[in-house]
Inverse folding.
């Protein structure tokens, strides 16, 4: 007997079909994985079931739960259902909680709204639920505010809110995408435990095949608003009958063809780099307390090498990057690029031109009011060139990253995320630097686009003799594209070595825990296809 | 994209007064400086649309020319506010957290701390009442408003990746402010500009009312109200028409400000 059965769900907005013929069934005590790339309609499916689809949407088909068609229920009936029978958690725990209310109030609110308890009873139930999600009373009293918690802890509060009334169905939309790997592993364990203990059904929406592989009993693969393949997880992963599933798999395990061109000549040398921040004074005449974000970090990046830098959020890798790029002054040690010292903030243009950067967010990396030609040409500020030559070189750079020179006249919103990342790479290439810092440069991309961008980076490294400093939290990507790797934790580099050696036999306990926490597709499922 | 109703209504109202001000350069129903005692205090009618005052001057013509004064004073005052406030705000944001930021923003607080009309009266009292001094007085109080709006908008932009990319391209703070920050906060400034514009018209009317704005014989809405005060019981049109003109212009500009904010703010656009 299925708990929720969705039959031929159809959703269109102003004539554009977003979802068509989406059918699946979920059973009690099971995890149902919904995988697909961004824009495939997986979140929209969940929203439609919850009755939260945009007002302009037209719905068709049925979503049957306990004899009722959820798509036809009135808003009042849906309000009674949401939180009570169906719970939902979202991707971004930083914004999913109200910052001015305590966590106890927020969990209790669900109970009070649905009339399940009075104020005292709700507080007691909230305590019990928070205990269940691993936030125990001694360290996390109900009076805590969201800003006092880390991302993973906030996601636990969100889960406690979603399961406060013991719903039969829990929908989790990318619940761990914004979290670090070790935190992700803990949250996934928690969700799995809740499903088993409370006999719930969990719909897990994610783009990450490895997460689904470790969690879901059944899985459905979505592409362009349709389910192209579904079935028991192991079977789907082993057999991959649909071409799209095969391509997704190939892309997620993609290994760009790299020919190592690393030399022994040091290019970037960090020697005992220390970066401190001055915090606000606690008392009017007190000294400023100091926060050391990077503690005596030393490493060498050789010419032609890809050096990985991994670590979780807050470990200081972004701070170190800013120091390397000469954007922030350092308080100890020295950074030299090709023998010349990087003296922030007044780095000579000729030195700046030797290192460029590509950022994570393809949407925030460009001024929306400039055309591509001007965006790509920005680093010419460092190495002035005549106007004719600039145009030529912009066209050349766009060609090198697989775009057309005709794209020069367009604005950035006309491009997809992957294309924007290519434009960012073109901008970095334009002054022919020695070193490109890739700051989570492929983290926001879908797997297939990511594979293409990684191929592009590998090809450019060979043709332009580039060196990369590859900063990422994604261990599988770092493993696929770097020669050597640094592992950073709490401002210190705890392990350094050849990438394969570090991944195969990590020495430091932190590296070991990182590698153990990274979700992976079981090896016996990977051979097929 | 459909324009909000408030924006259309505001644009229509403002356009009417702008047209009246422009037309008054070439044509008015009657001369505004010609005194015609024989036709004094005539109620509104076919010849004198809005009636005449105690010197026999045509109220309709004076309201048209008065629009010119009000709009000119408000435009120049907003111009002073933008011209000085925006660069200060950009500078403060570029040096956020530093002493420059601190000095600029505390200076703003200082100006904010005084009731603006009182200081405007002080300025005009010291330097003599004139349209120029009214413009200066109102303009000075626009500076901190624009500085704050600019700084707030700019600070949130300084954390974006494209600003970092420009820094990596070796561009200095001034250049980044002009090239990347300013165009992206232009919509904030446009909205604030229309609102300050309406406040400017109100302030000018207030200063003229107490006799510290534009001096006779230049017609001004505020002074027309002041002169009408004693005659309101038997010639209400003298107060009615300049009063309506002030109310409708300010309403129109405020509606434009609201409408533009709805139109330019992507968050509100999605919610609509």
């Amino acid at each position: 007997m299925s708990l929720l059965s969705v039959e031929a769900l159809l959703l269109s907005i102003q004539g554009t079909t977003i979802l068509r013929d989406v059918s699946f069934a979920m059973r009690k005590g099971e995890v149902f994985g919904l995988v697909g790339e961004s824009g495939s309609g997986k979140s929209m499916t969940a929203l439609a079931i919850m009755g939260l689809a945009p007002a302009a949407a037209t719905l068709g088909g049925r979503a049957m739960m306990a004899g009722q068609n959820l798509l036809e229920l009135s808003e009042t009936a849906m309000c009674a259902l949401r939180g009570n029978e169906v719970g939902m958690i979202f991707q971004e725990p930083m914004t999913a909680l109200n910052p001015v209310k305590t966590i106890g109030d927020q969990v209790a609110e669900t109970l009070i709204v649905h009339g399940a308890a009075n104020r005292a009873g709700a507080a007691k139930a909230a305590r019990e639920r928070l205990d269940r999600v691993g936030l125990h009373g001694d360290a996390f009293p109900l009076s805590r505010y969201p800003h006092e918690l880390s991302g993973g802890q906030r996601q636990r509060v969100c889960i406690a809110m979603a399961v406060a009334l013991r719903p039969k169905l829990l929908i989790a939309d990318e619940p761990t995408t914004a979290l670090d790997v070790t935190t992700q592993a803990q949250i996934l364990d928690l969700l799995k435990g809740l499903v088993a203990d409370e006999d719930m059904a969990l719909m897990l929406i994610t783009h990450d095949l490895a997460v689904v592989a470790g969690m879901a009993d059944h899985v459905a693969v979505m592409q362009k608003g349709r389910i192209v393949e579904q079935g028991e997880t192991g079977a789907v992963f082993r057999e991959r009958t649909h071409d799209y599933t095969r391509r997704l798999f190939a892309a997620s395990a993609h290994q760009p063809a790299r020919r190592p061109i690393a030399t022994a000549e040091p290019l970037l040398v960090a020697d005992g780099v220390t970066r401190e921040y001055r915090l606000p004074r606690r008392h009017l005449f007190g000294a400023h307390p100091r926060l050391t974000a990077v503690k005596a970090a030393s490493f060498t990046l050789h010419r032609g090498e890809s050096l990985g830098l991994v670590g979780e959020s807050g470990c200081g890798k972004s701070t170190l990057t800013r120091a390397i790029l000469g954007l922030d002054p350092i308080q100890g040690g020295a950074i030299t690029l090709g023998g010349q010292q990087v003296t922030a903030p007044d780095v000579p243009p000729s030195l700046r031109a030797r290192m460029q950067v590509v950022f994570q967010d393809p949407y925030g990396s460009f001024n929306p009011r400039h055309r591509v030609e001007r965006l790509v040409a920005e680093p010419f500020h460092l190495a002035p060139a005549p106007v004719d030559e600039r145009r030529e070189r912009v066209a050349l750079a766009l060609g090198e990253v697989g775009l057309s020179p005709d794209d020069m006249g367009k604005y950035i919103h006309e491009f997809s995320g992957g294309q924007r990342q290519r434009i960012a790479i073109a901008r970095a290439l334009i002054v022919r630097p020695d070193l490109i810092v890739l700051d989570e440069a492929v983290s926001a991309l879908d797997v297939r686009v990511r594979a293409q961008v990684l191929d592009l980076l590998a090809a450019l490294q060979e043709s332009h003799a580039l060196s990369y400093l590859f900063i990422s939290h994604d261990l599988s990507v770092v493993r696929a594209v770097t020669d050597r790797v640094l592992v950073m934790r709490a401002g210190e580099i705890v392990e350094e070595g050849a990438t394969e050696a570090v991944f195969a036999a990590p020495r430091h306990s932190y590296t070991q825990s990182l590698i153990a926490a990274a979700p992976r597709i079981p090896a016996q499922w990977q051979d097929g296809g | 994209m459909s324009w909000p109703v408030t924006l259309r209504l505001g644009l229509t109202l403002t356009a009417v007064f702008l047209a009246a001000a422009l037309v008054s350069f070439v044509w008015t129903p009657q001369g505004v400086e010609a005194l015609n005692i024989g036709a004094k205090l005539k109620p509104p009618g076919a010849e004198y649309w809005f009636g005449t005052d105690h010197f026999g001057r045509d109220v309709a013509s004076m309201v048209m020319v008065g629009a010119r004064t009000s709009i000119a004073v408000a435009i120049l005052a907003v111009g002073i506010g933008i011209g000085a406030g925006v660069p200060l705000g950009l500078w403060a944001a570029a040096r956020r957290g530093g002493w420059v930021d601190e000095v600029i923003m505390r200076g703003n607080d200082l100006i904010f701390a005084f009731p603006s009309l009182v200081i405007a009266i002080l300025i005009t009292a010291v330097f003599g009442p004139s349209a120029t001094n009214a413009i200066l007085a109102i303009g000075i109080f626009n500076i901190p408003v624009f500085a704050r709006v600019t700084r707030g908008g700019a600070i949130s932009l300084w954390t974006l990746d494209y600003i970092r990319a420009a820094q990596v391209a070796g561009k200095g703070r001034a250049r980044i402010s002009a090239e990347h920050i300013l165009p992206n906060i232009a919509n904030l400034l446009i909205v604030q500009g229309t609102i300050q514009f309406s406040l400017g018209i109100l302030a000018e009317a207030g200063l003229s009312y107490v006799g510290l704005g534009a001096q006779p014989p230049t017609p001004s809405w505020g002074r027309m109200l002041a002169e009408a005060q004693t005659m309101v019981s038997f010639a209400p049109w003298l107060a009615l028409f300049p009063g309506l003109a002030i109310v409708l212009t300010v309403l129109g500009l405020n509606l434009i400000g609201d409408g533009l904010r709805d139109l330019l703010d992507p968050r509100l656009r999605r919610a609509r």
